[in-house]
C-alpha cells in the first residue's frame, strides 16, 4: 500500500490497444512534493499513461492510486485535489478567458476572486476579455493551466505544459511550477519530450520508450550519467597514440585529434599532458567534452538511431 507521502502509485500499469501496447507494465511511485517528469519521444506512451492517471482511459491491467485513492472512471476519485492539463486544452471558443475561468470556478465551487488571481498568476490580464478562440497557442495553453490551477490542487498532472509557448513563456511556466512545488508543496507530474527543459525543472525523471519505463533518475544525478571523453591533439598524432597506448590508454583518431573515454584519462588530463610532453609530443589541444543532454536522452531511448 502506498504511504501518505505517495502522490501517485502505479503497479504494473498496462494499456493494450488492438495494434499496440501503449503502456507496458509500468511501475511508478511519485512522492508528494516532487516534480516528476515523464520523458519520451512521440508515441512513447506519455499521454496514455497520463490519461490513465486521470481516469480518462481504463487500464487493461495493473493497479493505480492517486492521492491514496484508487482511480476509476466513475465518481468518488481524488479529483477535487487534482488539477490537470491534457494536450491542447479545450475552452469554450466564444467565451472570453475570464468567462471560461468563471465556469470552471463555479464547477469547482471556488470564490469569485480566484479567477482574478489565476489570471494574474498566468500573465493573462491583457487577454482576460478576449474570446478563447482568438488566443494564440501559447495563451490557450496558459488558459489551460489557469483552469488546472484555479482550485489550488495538491497534485498537478500536465501533459506537455510548455507546448506552444515561446522561450519566455517556457521560463515563466517553469518558474510557476517550481514555485508551486517548493513554496506550496504541490506535487507536479508532467510529460515532455525535451530533456533540456525538464532537467531544469524536475526533481526526478522517468524515461518512457515504447510503453516501458526504461530508467528513473534523480535530476541532480544527471551529470554522473553523461558520457565524457578526452580529446587531445598534437603535431604528431600517430606518435602520441603510440605513447598513450604504451602507457595503457586506448585512443581513437577523431577529426585531426585523438579521443579516449578511459576514466583515468578523462579524470586526469594533466597526467596525459605530462606523458606527452615527456615523450616530446606536447599537446596543442586538450579538452574534456561532456555529452549534451539531448544526445544522452537519445542514447537512452533509441540507441539504434543514428546520432550525430
Ligand atoms: N485510442 C487509441 N487507439 C489505438 N492506439 C492508440 C490510442 N491512443 C494511443 N495509441 C497508440 O499508443 C501509443 C502511445 O501513444 P501516446 O499518445 O500515449 O504517446 P505519447 O508519448 O503521448 O506521444 P506524443 O508525444 O506524440 O503525444 C502510440 O503508438 C499510439 O498510436
From TrEMBL:
Taxonomic lineage: Bacteria, Bacillati, Actinomycetota, Actinomycetes, Micromonosporales
Domain (ABC transporter) ranges: 8-235
PANTHER family the record matches: ABC TRANSPORTER, ATP-BINDING PROTEIN
InterPro entries, per the entry: AAA+_ATPase (IPR003593), ABC_transporter-like_ATP-bd (IPR003439), ABC_transporter-like_CS (IPR017871), P-loop_NTPase (IPR027417)
Pfam families on file: ABC_tran
Designated name of the protein: ABC-2 type transport system ATP-binding protein
Domain of life of the source: Bacteria
Similarity-based family: Belongs to the ABC transporter superfamily.
This protein's record includes keyword Repeat: no
Key word ATP-binding present: yes
Keywords: ATP-binding, Nucleotide-binding, Transport
Species for this entry: Allocatelliglobosispora scoriae
An example Gene Ontology molecular-function term: ATP hydrolysis activity
Amino acid at each position: 500500500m502506498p504511504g501518505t507521502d505517495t502522490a501517485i502509485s502505479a503497479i504494473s500499469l498496462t494499456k493494450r490497444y488492438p495494434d499496440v501496447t501503449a503502456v507496458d507494465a509500468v511501475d511508478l511511485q511519485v512522492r508528494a512534493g516532487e516534480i516528476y517528469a515523464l520523458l519520451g519521444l512521440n508515441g512513447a506512451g506519455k499521454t496514455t499513461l497520463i490519461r490513465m492517471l486521470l481516469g480518462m482511459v481504463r487500464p487493461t491491467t495493473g493497479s493505480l492510486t492517486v492521492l491514496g485513492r484508487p482511480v476509476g472512471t466513475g465518481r468518488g476519485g481524488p479529483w477535487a485535489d487534482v488539477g490537470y492539463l491534457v494536450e491542447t486544452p479545450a475552452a469554450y471558443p466564444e467565451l472570453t478567458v475570464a468567462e471560461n475561468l468563471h465556469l470552471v470556478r463555479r464547477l469547482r465551487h471556488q470564490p469569485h476572486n480566484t479567477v482574478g488571481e489565476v489570471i494574474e498568476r498566468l500573465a493573462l490580464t491583457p487577454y482576460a476579455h478576449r474570446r478563447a478562440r482568438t488566443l494564440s497557442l501559447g495563451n490557450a495553453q496558459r488558459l489551460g493551466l489557469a483552469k488546472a490551477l484555479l482550485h489550488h490542487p495538491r497534485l498537478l498532472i500536465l501533459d506537455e505544459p510548455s507546448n506552444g509557448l515561446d522561450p519566455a513563456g517556457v521560463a515563466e511556466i517553469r518558474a510557476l511550477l517550481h514555485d508551486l512545488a517548493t513554496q506550496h508543496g504541490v506535487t507536479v507530474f508532467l510529460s515532455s519530450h525535451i530533456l533540456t527543459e525538464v532537467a531544469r525543472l524536475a526533481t526526478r525523471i522517468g524515461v518512457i520508450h515504447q510503453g516501458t519505463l526504461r530508467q528513473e533518475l534523480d535530476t541532480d544525478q544527471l551529470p554522473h550519467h553523461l558520457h565524457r571523453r578526452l580529446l587531445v591533439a598534437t603535431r604528431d598524432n600517430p606518435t602520441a597514440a603510440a605513447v598513450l597506448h604504451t602507457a595503457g590508454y586506448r585512443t581513437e583518431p577523431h577529426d585531426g585529434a585523438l579521443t579516449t573515454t578511459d576514466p583515468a584519462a578523462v579524470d586526469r588530463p594533466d597526467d596525459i599532458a605530462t606523458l606527452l610532453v615527456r615523450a616530446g609530443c606536447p599537446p596543442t589541444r586538450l579538452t574534456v567534452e561532456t555529452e549534451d543532454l539531448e544526445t544522452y536522452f537519445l542514447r537512452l531511448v533509441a540507441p539504434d538511431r543514428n546520432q550525430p
